[in-house]
Amino acid sequence: MTALSASLKFALPALILAPAFASARDTNGPVWDFYGQLNLGVISVDDGFDRNTSLSDNDNSRVGVIFKQDLQNGSEFRFHFETAIGLTGSSSISGDDNDFDAEYRRTELRKFEIIYDTANIGKFSFGQGSIATDSVAEADFSGNSVIGYSSINDQAGSQEFRLSNGSQSGVRIGNAFSAFDGGRRFRLRYDTPNFNGFGLAISGGEEVLASGNDDEFYNIGLTHDRDYGAYKVAGRLGYSIRGSDEELLLGSAAVLHKSTGLSLAMAGGRQQEGDASYLFVKGGLQRDWFDFGRTYLSVDYYDGDDFQTSGSSSSSVGLSLVQKIDAANLELYASYRTYEFDAAGRNFEDLDVTFVGARWKF
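Above: the chain sequence. Below: its structure as tokens.
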């Protein structure tokens, strides 16, 4: 057992007992909140020589439940469970394997945590859940993050670039593109109260679901969310240590002009112990053109350097459309994205990806 594992083990009893010490009785009865979403579509990939089309989960179909218990001192105790449902995701489909099936693995578990949200001193979380840099690269008011956001490698990460002679290059989208965004790990996390729109989160944790991987993670994230008159603003900044030799600095910012529906988002990051870096820019427009739901349009551009090999360049342009149907809790979406990768001495073909689908929330 690592030192971090031991520390997290001893932290668990304290977090479980904290609500009991904070209040001798509850003010309101317990609440169970069940939720989920189904997100399916058709992805089509053109690698310059072949086109493959297949049914896919857009990598975020899930179900979950939140148990809430109010405490007398104004605090709240929560238990949060959330899991993906094991459908083949768009990021795992490749030219060699594009079958759509269901296979549940333990890595499908997204959240299994207890949360003690105090009235005055912040929030404490323990278990499998978001680390402090999760979503730090995702400040975005475009409204269509369901199909296009800074982690553009999530959509088709296993697709492999071909060389100009038609042979496989060994370089996949997931190797050549990244937003450095944090994810979910088994961790202890603390979030400060909100001060004038600012919040700070700190976490330390370990990978426990992926076989053969026990990397430790230490993260700090700063957030800012506030309205400034006609504008809505969000900012994120994070620093992450992964394993023993990877340090990442990342951040994002977004602004929405409320009356026009125009938005702008930017994200960027850099390895501190390497050369890889990127910049992502996205412009959005949202309008109430139809009575049944709002329409969201966006265009984005990604530029990365030194991924996979030193001196390489990665770029991508994406177009996205999302149409909401409010009465059915439904979002219809479509996107087109082209991925380009260049490295000295090799000529890579572009990858063109289209995706149409729908997300239903319940």
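The first helix runs from residue 3 to 22.
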